Amino acid sequence: MVDRAVSAPRQTAPMSTRERPIDRGRRLATGDRLRIGHELRVARRIAGKSVHVVGSAAGMSGAQVARIERAALPTVSVDQLARLGAVVGLDVRVRAFPGPDPTLDAGQTALLKRLQARLATNLGFRTEVPLPISGDQRAWDAVIDRLRGITPVLPVEAESRFVDGQAQTRRISLKLRDSGLEFVLLVVADTRANRQVLNGAASTLLADFPVPARRALAALRAGDHPGGSAIVLL
Question: CA torsion, points 140, 132, 173, 199, in degrees to nearest 10?
Fold first, then answer.
């Protein structure tokens, strides 16, 4: 289903500047502490209980409860929040949601350079292109434009480590849906481990990436759109 294609690197466009992951994490944590603290306080007052009564039942002091409700305890744990919630009639749960894409690592950057070297010289090639949605911090690893064919634009995702085919392609599918695009080029580093994952998931991936790698690369080398989504090993 996938083919090997190796070539010399070329220069890519400069990367865009986005919020650092550590700063985003701190900002989200502060917002979550404020929200859950308020919800715990409201539930406690509805139950008619003091911070000391709730704290005693949850195995902590009343002063700790008051600080958690004010979001003044940065080190509050999930265990503490869950215990407090249980005492006042709330189930505190933690879930992870898709956030902004991380900046490109060295492996991804090298992959994109190898891909760009395979393209027709008249094509546009931009890296880290944000999705056209206000407030959405996700970005395509690259976008090829000025293509001939069904659409002039083709987003690109580069994966230096292909670990979970289902999870990684689901993330790409969501970005396609949210950006209003239909086709994508997935470029994967040509390693033994990645080939094993791709081969194991070949039957599942074929429906979403039906264009053979050689055909996709030949089209891009000629300046044409591949005509659908494809996975290429480089």
Answer: -10
* Nearest-angstrom CA–CA distance, 169 and 207: 12
Residues 113 and 227 in one domain: yes
Residue 212 has pLDDT above 50, yes or no: yes
Parent domain of 113: 106-233
DSSP code of residue 9: -
The CA-CA-CA angle for residues 32, 33, 38, to 5°, reads 100
HSE-CB for 174 with a 13 A CA cutoff: 14
**Of the residues 87, 118, 143, the one at which a domain ends:** 87
For residues 216 and 126, what is the distance between their CA atoms, to the nearest angstrom? 19
Cα 138 from chain centre = 7
pLDDT digits (tens, 9 = 90+) for 29-56: 999 999 999 999 999 998 899 999 999 9
Check: CB of residue 74 under 8 Å from CB of residue 25: no
Give the number of other CB atoms < 10 A from CB of residue 43: 17
CATH number assigned to the domain comprising residue 34: 1.10.260
How far, in whole angstroms, is CA 96 from its chain's centroid?
11
Question: For residue 96, is it within any domain?
Answer: no
- SS3 letters for 21-56? HHHHHHHHHHHHHHHHHHHHHHHHHHCCCCHHHHHH
